[in-house]
């Protein structure tokens, strides 16, 4: 069973996909929220249909639960990238095919007769390594006075260069067909040997001068103590030169230190003036202090008046008593 058709929906279990080809809105949605709500409702129905179809398939029990083998997909989905093209055969593959040579799988570990141990065929500490050979037997064809160890290193270098050249030639043939892998396509098109139709862009004279000046200024001294080439122009200084004030203050430029300091302070004060002095806060504080001072003054006045009142009454009473006594004496 590869697919299931219901009355209104089609289910493709190979892709775990379900869709309704006859779906239509009874009325166009008036807002985005209504459209999202309708889509969620329809999606919930389709997901439930997929779950029901999965539980109807034959399953096997496992520790994690029942396992189901999905049928092959029925719907052909579009592909984002084009199908990879087959790589053209290399020169060695063509030669091996013509001669009937078949690749044999070699062991990675080989017995080394010189050391009597098993070693790797390639890589570090490999078998028959030139570094493990202390003595090289001379041949009749060797030239007198020639270093056999240096000769071996030169031959190895030539072999490496030959292999690299063959590798680039293979990349060139693959790039012509368009069968390069995506991860090396970009790197291969930048090589001059890849066979691209567009010729490599030549750098102009100004670009070369700019690159040379950048390389000259890449040292710690900025190219000040580097040797200049023949015909090389001095480096163009881009931007402003930084000026420093003298150590000892004097007339002329030496008197600018004070002005420069005042300028910086004025700039800071003007920038943060709202933080240094808050006018509203200062007025409120002044009003509060003034009100407190007025209240304190009123309290003092009331206290002094209350203290003086009883004394006046006592004086009056004493005066009255004194007057009556005088009258009695006079009588």
What does this structure look like?
With 331 residues, the protein is mainly α. Helix content is 47%, strand content 6%. The protein is built from eight helices and seven strands. β2 and β3 form a beta hairpin. The relative contact order is 0.04.
Please outline the helices and strands:
Blueprint: E1 4-5, E2 10-12, E3 17-19, H1 32-55, E4 59-60, E5 67-68, H2 91-99, E6 109-112, E7 117-120, H3 148-177, H4 182-189, H5 205-216, H6 256-271, H7 273-276, H8 279-330
Antiparallel strand pairs: 1-2, 2-3, 4-5, 6-7
Percent strand: 5-15%
Helix count from the secondary structure assignment:
8
pLDDT under 50 segments (min length 5)?
A: 193-197, 312-331
Using DSSP, what is the number of strands?
A: 7
N to C succession of SSEs: EEEHEEHEEHHHHHH
Helix coverage percent of residues? 40-55%
Instruction: Calculate the terminal CA-CA distance, rounded to whole Å.
Output: 149 Å
Radius of gyration, rounded? 51 Å
Characterize the quaternary organization of these chains.
single chain
Task: Record the strand order, biggest sheet.
Answer: 1-2-3
**Major sheet size, sense and barrel closure:** 3 strands, antiparallel
The average pLDDT score comes to 76
Going by helix content, strand content and strand pairing, the class is: mainly alpha
Features:
single chain, 331 residues, mainly alpha, three-stranded antiparallel beta sheet, two-stranded antiparallel ribbon, 8 helices, 47% helix, 6% strand, flat
